[in-house]
Write a structure and sequence with these properties.
About 60% of the residues lie in helices and about 5% in strands. It is mainly α. The strands form three sheets. The chain has a two-stranded antiparallel sheet. A hairpin with a 2-residue loop joins β5 and β6. It is globular. The N terminus and C terminus are likely disordered.
Length: about 500
């Protein structure tokens, strides 16, 4: 009997192991996990800040919301990465409160429903989303590289305004918003990321984002741009109290509005699952997407119990996976555990919250740009000859950029429409899927030369060009050589090609 040595992932050395199952040393696992937390921390605390302010809460209640979002986001991340039967994609995806529902939740609060109606609508809409996930998990065949590359590219591009806002200071009402000092701090942080990425040590290079944030914070402290004085204020330990703001209420209008948000969340999470699968080179099929979406919806349905909101995969952390090359889902699970601890220990959360926003912005420029670059790399593998893939990419990215370039573009449209298409990611994903089906799946009506885009994507030469060549002519190192091995001079001004014993002149 021969016993095969097991790798650290638990897989036999004779069989291929999934990249996401790699296990790193404990210290590295938590270091990289903490880097994920730092990357998404600003994003996960922004929704409770906005919603809490809209509901007229004081700082203590808003602090409770923030702690709850960290706590629930941590457990949602662990469920998504570790997984249980039927729940969890087992991919390195960080979960947190989705930005997609912020405007809808604010509208519900302003409509008189209060925070209780928000929680009630999230519960019901998420349960409906859980029931319809099998439909979404069947769409994998409609996500070829022309679609996934478009969506990944759009994810990176749509996140750039977030990085720019962070670099400017994060608060548009602040006096120093967009100041040279803020942008300079962001630039310094970005420079440190790039310099550390060039260092020969792979460990330092992979931790470049985290180390750059530490350096950036130290620079901010030296110039009086960071304030840790309030870290000691407030409770040290606080467990989220179930239904701390009262029992949820259920209003039909609020539930319908939130259901639209859930549809957007399902679309975005599907895109993120496919994106991280592309980056990690992991197999992503309908079952895996379904498991990931069910984890998303279950977390969202339970989150209001602990005073949190809809959960979704964080696109910015997809960029971190790409830039560090750390594909292990256990690293992200460690980040989820850190989020849980931050939710239980507000004092630690206040330490992380003290990291200046411009520092996050400097790192975000590289992170989000990496996501876009990953999408471009996928699009480079797409076949553009003799088909309409170019127009699928062009129209989808253009459509996805509309709400980014003009945030008020859909303000006059019905609320349900603007909720869906105000997200550049959702807009691009919907357009890419529909156009791919129209041109690549529904063949009826297609012709050989459907538009200028078909002819423009394929390289060709005219018969007159070919007629100027003699038998045996060929190119070597960019030079035209005849069959005797002699170079044939090429002139561009009057377009004359001279060959020994033969001269032909043709019009330009």
């Amino acid at each position: 009997m021969i016993l095969k040595k097991k790798s650290r992932t638990g897989a036999s050395r004779s069989g291929p192991a999934r990249p996401e199952d790699e296990r790193l040393p404990l210290g590295s696992t938590f270091a990289y996990g903490f880097q994920h937390v730092l990357t998404m921390y600003g994003g996960i605390i922004a929704p409770p800040l906005i919603i809490g302010a809209a509901a007229g809460m004081d700082s203590q209640d808003i602090g409770l919301l923030i702690a709850a979002c960290l706590f629930v986001g941590g457990f949602a991340t662990i469920l998504q990465t570790i997984g249980v039967p039927f729940f969890g994609s087992q991919l390195p995806l960080v979960q947190g409160v989705s930005f997609a529902g912020v405007s809808t939740m604010v509208a519900i609060v302003h409509g008189g429903g209060g925070i209780q109606s928000v929680f009630g609508s999230v519960i019901v809409a998420s349960l409906i989303g859980l029931a319809i996930t099998p439909v979404f998990s069947k769409i994998i065949r409609f996500f070829p590289p022309v679609v996934t590359g478009t969506v990944i590219t759009t994810i990176g591009l749509t996140l750039m305004p977030v990085a720019a806002n962070w670099a400017m200071g994060g608060n548009s009402q602040a006096e120093n918003y967009g100041s040279v000092s803020n942008i300079g701090l962001a630039a310094a942080t970005m420079a440190v990321v790039l310099l550390l990425s060039k260092v020969g040590s792979s460990a330092i290079s992979r931790l470049s984002i985290l180390l750059a944030m530490v350096v950036g914070t130290l620079i901010a402290l030296a110039f009086g741009m960071a304030d840790f004085s309030k870290v000691g204020e407030g409770d040290v330990v606080a467990f989220p109290t179930p239904f701390a703001f009262g029992a949820p209420t259920f209003e039909i209008a609020a539930i319908i509005s939130m259901l639209i948000v859930i549809l957007v969340t399902l679309t975005e999470t599907s895109a993120d699952i496919i994106a991280v699968g592309e980056i990690t080179k992991s197999k992503v099929d309908a079952k895996r997407i379904g498991d990931g979406l069910r984890a998303d919806m279950l977390s969202s349905a339970l989150s209001p119990v602990f005073n949190s909101f809809t959960q979704s995969a964080f696109a910015q952390n997809v960029g971190l996976v790409a830039i560090t090359g750390i594909k292990s889902r256990f690293v992200v699970s460690a980040g989820g555990l850190i989020l849980v601890v931050l939710g239980l220990l507000p004092i630690l959360g206040r330490v992380v919250a003290a990291v200046p926003t411009p520092v996050l912005g400097g790192a975000g420029v590289v992170l989000f740009g990496t996501v876009a670059a990953s999408g471009i790399r996928t699009l480079a593998k797409v076949e553009y000859r003799g088909n309409m893939n170019l127009i699928v990419v062009a129209a989808s990215i253009g459509f996805g950029m509309i709400p980014i370039a003009a945030p008020h573009f859909y303000d006059q449209f019905p609320a349900w429409f603007s909720t869906i298409f105000h997200s550049g990611i959702s807009s691009a994903a919907i357009a890419a899927i529909l156009l791919n089906i129209m041109f690549n799946h529904v063949k009826k009506g297609n012709s050989e030369n459907q538009s200028v885009f078909v002819a423009g994507t394929e390289r060709s030469v005219t018969d007159r060009d070919v007629a100027c060549l003699a038998d045996g002519d060929h190119f070597e190192d960019g030079k035209l050589i005849d069959r005797e091995g002699r170079e044939v001079p090429i002139t561009s001004s009057i377009d004359v090609v001279k060959v020994p014993d033969r001269t032909e002149t043709r019009e330009p």
